[in-house]
Amino acid sequence: MAKLYFHYSTMNAGKSTLLLQAAHNYTERGMETYLLTARIDDRAGPARIASRIGIGKSADTFDTEDDLFTMIGRRLADGPCACAFVDEAQFLTPEQVWQLARVVDDLGLPVMCYGLRVDFRGELFPGSASLLALADEMREVRTICHCGKKATMVVRMGPDGKVLKEGAQVQIGGNESYVSLCRRHWREAMGDRSQA
Fold it and tell me: Which of 54, 76, 96, 102 gets the most CB atoms within 10 Å of its CB?
């Protein structure tokens, strides 16, 4: 039975690596997959999903105005496809998450989404909020804070190396811009630690 999956975490937890490994597992068994990634994030090059450990694969891209139900339907019309994979799922719109749910329900195709849960301010991305509401299964991809605890938050760093507390929700970047932290150290970095 097809399901909508949401694999979420903070930055640098290995989400893209897991996506590429899962897609490879299908391919290794002779099954085709369909890979999608957000057009806005082209750090690995245009139309490409890549991991910090050096593996990558070409993908189709989506933008906020794209109808993913139609895109995936066209892919299915071209031939067999066992699963659709969506990287950078935090950039989906709520409507696109519903389109992915329709892919699962009406087309019977499993959809695996990988993305961030919260931004540097500790707020849900709209796509992630919708996936948390609609996904059939959710899996946390874990990474650790510098203290060794599980990292659940991320801070954005300015060019001067200082933590930014304000700014646009979306700013494409990697290790040069973001650091994953546990909640306690995120609160400390953001100046919001209680005086006990």
Answer: 96
- pTM of the entire predicted model: 0.85
* Topology at the third CATH level for domain 4-142: Rossmann fold (3.40.50)
How far apart (Å, rounded) are the C-alpha atoms in residues 116 and 16? 11
Catalytic-labelled residue, pool 32, 65, 88, 123: 88
- Sketch the domain layout of the chain as residue ranges: 4-142
Model confidence over 122-150: pLDDT tens digits? Answer: 889 999 999 999 999 999 988 889 899 99
Amino acid at 176: E
pLDDT band at 196 (very low <50, low <70, confident <90, very high): very low
CA nearest 188: which of 125, 146, 142?
Answer: 146
88 in active site: yes
For the chain, give the number of residues: 196
